[in-house]
Design goal:
With 362 residues, the chain is α/β, with parallel strands linked by helices. It is built from 17 helices and 12 strands. A 7-stranded mixed beta sheet has the order 6-5-4-7-8-12-11. The chain has a 3-stranded antiparallel beta sheet with strand order 1-3-2. It has a two-stranded parallel ribbon with strand order 9-10. Helix 2 crosses helix 5, helix 7 packs across helix 12 and helix 12 runs parallel beside helix 13. The longest helix has 25 residues.
Length: 362
């Protein structure tokens, strides 16, 4: 085998092993977040670098394993979560290293009680054993169809039923949704101004009302109604300007409004179920009323900036929901037309996963 062939084989092997070991990243990130390592460094000073011993002194343990901690810190620095600094000229001396926060971690991986933009709850949700167990059975979905979550993690219960019956997981799920909502809404409000002429707005499946709270911060004239399942509304905080109403999203009539907002929710459901929800929306808004949908728009063209990221969400839906899926612009157009809406526009910056799909009641 010539040198060029060997080098080509090494590249392929490197790519293959990178895929195999990619599972390490989310779980060592979770390890660092559960130990609150970014918080420990942040509280010492936003741009301070701490040694292994200094970080260990802040852990909730009388006898932490310094070697294990050092190795975790080293790996987090290779991920770009921490910045490793060698204060001495001594090479390969891990215990002498110091660690500082990167801009990525300052922005997204400090705890939510310190940084409102934190994605820590979202990390804890997606690395939860309930999610991981479902992934381990995804091949069964391909072989036999059906509800992968129900047949694995759910112990015979579909996702929403399981969540309603498990308060601990329900709290983790809601916290994760709140954290990703804050990140998503910042992008939406930066690119879409269609809320300016809306007086009454319902968020269908709005969780704890975080999205509505951010919308009325930008548009304080809006009367905002958050409509979601009873187990979600039961733990929703009181938010200024937001009215919480609980009900079945399929069986209860949506509250009447000038416009209805639906964020990252329709992708959970099959076309048939989406039609039920959209028909509910049709009854709730007046003629020329708005339907404002925030979702990924799948683009299967080669080299599309959205192909990889939207496909990640599509795989997540495959794992958790028997009918859930991401949709192309054509599929969104057809679904909205069938429900009596006309697709007005799709707004989104290049590279942003969530787009704003505006439709008008015909």
């Amino acid at each position: 085998m010539n040198i060029q062939a060997v080098e080509g084989e090494e590249v392929l092997q490197g790519s293959a092993l990178s895929m195999v070991f990619s599972l390490v990243n989310p779980f060592l990130l979770k390890c660092g977040l559960r130990l609150k390592i970014p918080d420990i460094i942040w509280k010492a000073g936003h741009d301070v670098a701490l040694s292994v011993h200094q970080i260990a002194a802040q852990l909730p343990s009388d006898a932490p394993d310094l070697d294990a901690l050092s190795r975790v810190l080293t790996y987090l620095s290779t991920m770009g979560i921490l910045r490793a600094i060698n204060p001495t000229e001594e090479i390969n001396s891990p215990m002498n290293m110091k660690y500082a926060l990167t801009n990525l971690t300052k922005t997204y991986f400090i705890s939510e009680d310190i940084n409102s933009r934190s994605l820590v709850p979202f990390v804890l949700l997606h690395t939860h054993p309930v999610y991981v167990t479902a992934w381990d059975h995804i091949h069964e979905r391909v072989l036999h169809g059906g509800d992968n979550f129900k047949n694995s993690s759910g112990n015979g219960k579909e996702f929403w039923n399981f969540t309603a019956r498990n308060p601990e997981f329900n709290a983790i799920f809601n916290a994760g949704m709140v954290s990703i909502t804050k990140a998503t809404m910042a992008q939406i409000l930066a690119i879409y101004d269609g809320f300016k002429d809306v007086n009454t707005l319902v968020d269908l499946g709005g969780g704890h009302g975080e999205a509505l709270s951010l919308i009325i911060d930008a548009y304080p004239h809006i009367r905002a109604i958050n409509f979601d399942l009873p187990q979600v509304i039961a733990t929703a905080p009181t938010l200024p300007g937001v009215q919480h109403i609980s009900g079945s999203l399929f069986e209860s009539a949506a509250p009447s409004a000038d416009a209805i907002f639906i964020k990252n929710f329709l992708h959970i459901w099959s076309d048939e179920d989406c039609m039920k929800l959209l028909n509910n929306c049709y009854q709730a808004v007046p003629e020329k009323g708005k339907l404002i949908i925030a979702e990924a728009v799948l683009d299967l063209t080669e080299d599309s900036d959205m192909m990889g990221s939207a496909n990640v969400l599509d795989a997540l839906m495959l794992n958790l929901s028997p009918g859930g899926r991401e949709r192309t612009r054509k599929q969104w157009d057809e679904l909205l037309k069938a429900a009596g809406f006309s697709l007005s526009k799709i707004v989104g910056r290049k590279g942003n996963l969530t787009k704003v799909i505006e439709a008008i009641k015909c």
